[in-house]
Amino acid sequence: MGNYQNNTARQPLQIEGTIEAMQSKFTQIAAAENLVKWAEESQFAIEVLYKNPFLQKCDPVSIQNAIINVASVGLTLNPAYGLAYLVPEYNKAASRTECQLRISFKGLMKVAVDSGAIAFVKAEIVCESDHFEYLGPCEKPVHRMNPFADRGQTTGVYCIAKTAAGDYLTDVMSKAEIDYIKSKAKTKAVWESWYGEMAKKAIIKRASKQWPSAGQSERFAEAVNVVNQQEGNELEGQFKVVQQEVTEPLSVQYYPGENFLSNFPKWQQAIQSGKTSPEALIAKIETRGVLTDQQKQQINAVGRA
Q1: Structural domains in the chain (count)
Q2: Measuring CA to CA, how many Å separate 222 from each of 71, 228, 232, 248?
Q3: What are phi and psi of 89, to 5 degrees?
Q4: What are the tens digits of pLDDT across the range 135-185?
Q5: Do 162 and 213 fall into the same domain?
Q6: C-alpha span between 279 and 106 (Å, rounded)
Q7: What is the residue range of 264's domain?
Q8: In this structure, what are the phi and psi dihedrals at residue 142, rounded to the nearest 5 degrees?
């Protein structure tokens, strides 16, 4: 394995070589579940590395470890599904930028269901204007809301799981508990940008400790382990935690598609009011992440309207 400079952009052949060196190991690990294919995942990884200059500066070994984690948890990097992402973070202790595999709450739910840990699982945020009734740990709660109205601030989150036997298991978490978990996180920027998604992931992790088959699923345990390694674990000792001092991620592009859609209305208003131009806005956004060509076209179209 060659020695690369960690803080300089690498050439395309080096990017591809770093990933291709993992083909044999990836294929061997992925063969156990046969859920992800090398030909597809290697291309998804190469594409995102080409598009994101921050990822190009990552330590090559960390890129390779992230690719192996894709094989271990069996979650595709296909951006259309939003299950897992490659994200650059600066490791202050090691003085280098590292690539991490980030598993979304959607990815964690998929692994739980696919691996047989649970038959069905759903996590939802509860807000101030919602009507919510918790009926106990073995009953589905009552949750009524208007998804098209301003629901107010978050007051909690809950998770419903259905076992293979058809029983329901419900776990709830107050905002105070969510904020406590946030305070223990290794990186705060993801929480600041995606509070609801991170809260859902937190309740799914906690609820899974009560699922009958969760402890028997190696794949689900590995997925939770990857999440805890990169994001921190509110309950020390429950899973292995890698002790590293990590600062904020260089790119807050955790859920790129949802991020773009949620921010587009305010970007549109800024352009139409004359506060900024499409070109200036695109340049500003790309200091934090990389837009797709389609997303740039949408922003430029506002300027021509």
Answers
A1: 3
A2: 11, 10, 14, 24
A3: -140, 150
A4: 999 999 999 999 999 999 999 999 999 988 889 999 999 999 999 989 888
A5: yes
A6: 33
A7: 256-304
A8: -100, 120
Cβ-defined contacts of 10-15 (< 8 Å, 24+): 10/56, 10/57, 10/60, 12/50, 14/60, 15/46, 15/49, 15/50, 15/56
From the number of C-beta atoms within 10 Å of its C-beta (0-12, 13-18, 19+), residue 133 rates as exposed
Q: What is the pLDDT of residues 91-119, one digit of tens each?
A: 888 888 899 898 888 988 898 888 777 88
Q: Are 78 and 53 within one domain?
A: yes
Domain final residue pick, 75, 103, 131: 103
Who contacts 184 (Cβ-Cβ below 8 Å, separation ≥6)? 232, 233, 234
CA 167 to chain centre: 29
DSSP labels, 13-36: HHHHHHHHTTHHHHHHHHTTT--S
